[in-house]
Sequence to fold (167 residues):
Amino acid sequence: MLFGWEKCAILLLSSLRLRTGQLTTQLNLPMSETFSVIPHKIIGVAVIWNNQGQILIDRRRAEGLMGGLWEFPGGKVEPGETVEECIQREIEEELGIEIAVGDRLITIDHDYTKFRVTLTVHHCRHLTGEPQPIECDEIRWVNLEQLDHYTFPEANIQIINALRQSS
Ligand SMILES: Nc1nc2c([nH]c(=O)n2[C@H]2C[C@H](O)[C@@H](COP(=O)(O)OP(=O)(O)OP(=O)(O)O)O2)c(=O)[nH]1
Ligand SMILES: [Mg+2]
Fold:
């Protein structure tokens, strides 16, 4: 049996679609009633350019979430970190290269079925090191026209459109 205030709280939280970072817990409510907390991932994303006007893309691991899709490298912003710091760190961790993080291209909020993402995308310049597929299945340097030949997550349509408009 739910009390009035409990029902109000549930309605309020549901209507706000409670956003809680990486939290994926389901709250167990009385009488086996449950509601989902939608995870919200805050992601820094790099569009890394080389001197030939190409961009670095990577293929996500086949077995994971969005497995086998291509993406622009990046990852979750950690507490106390700026998006620029996150991008620099993720690229070192995922690809083993040094980059210069430049201007922001676009910020995208996108709802997937089970979670939402905020992707903050920066233009970056490759400085040193040969990119290695440390945390992905494959990496490739491609030009803007070739991006059409690769399958990206849904949110990336907006990144690719922004890239085409900015060039
Ligand atoms: N890096 C990157 N992530 C993207 C792009 N497009 C897109 O929808 N995403 C999503 C996929 C992931 O849910 C999230 C990136 O998070 P992530 O790669 O650090 O982590 P993950 O969710 O795959 O895995 P986990 O650490 O939660 O286990 O952003 C993109 O172009 N680049
Ligand atoms: Mg990542």
Observations:
- The helical segments are 4-16, 83-95, 156-166.
